[in-house]
């Protein structure tokens, strides 16, 4: 029912910045909480950031706090991940995900019913 398409990935040097975007094809975008996850080669898919459907709260993994910012624009059906001070360990495929309404455990992969195909971010040293 919900289709998600990520964009904005690419190659960047350590210390640089990227902004990822995820556009959702859904009629009621504003009722979905949204998250970003990432999966590095040979590793599990891990939580990065989430924003509540009401837009009044955000949540970040400890590894990205102070460097990444999640935001949403409901007029464009889009969620963003602004990434700054990038490190080589940020290299991964980044996925956006959506769940209807809210969750008290938005860091859990199993909370999300809808996933995009991912966009690759490579940070060189």
Describe what you observe in this structure.
This protein has 125 residues and is mainly beta. Helix content is 0%, strand content 51%. The protein contains no helices and 11 strands. It has strands at residues 3-7, 10-13, 18-25, 32-39, 45-51, 58-60, 68-73, 78-83, 92-100, 114-115, 119-124. Strands 2, 4, 5, 6, 9, 10 and 11 form a 7-stranded mixed sheet that branches. A 4-stranded antiparallel sheet has the order 1-3-8-7, with no helix packed on it. Strand 7 (68-73) and strand 8 (78-83) form a beta hairpin. The radius of gyration is 13 Å and the shape is globular. 34% of the residues are buried. The model has no long low-confidence stretch (mean pLDDT 96).
Helix content: under 10%
Mean pLDDT level: 96
The description of the largest β-sheet is: 7 strands, mixed
- Give the radius of gyration: 13 Å
- The shape is globular
The count of strands amounts to 11
N-to-C SSE string, H for helix and E for strand: EEEEEEEEEEE
**Low-pLDDT stretches:** none
How large a portion of the residues is in β-strands, by DSSP E?
over 45%
Structure characteristics:
single chain, 125 residues, mainly beta, seven-stranded mixed sheet, 0% helix, globular
Give me a quick take on this structure:
This protein has 125 residues and is mostly beta strands. The chain contains no helices and 11 strands.
Set down the secondary structure blueprint.
Layout: E1 3-7, E2 10-13, E3 18-25, E4 32-39, E5 45-51, E6 58-60, E7 68-73, E8 78-83, E9 92-100, E10 114-115, E11 119-124
Parallel strand pairs: 2-11
Antiparallel strand pairs: 1-3, 3-8, 4-5, 4-9, 5-6, 7-8, 9-10, 9-11
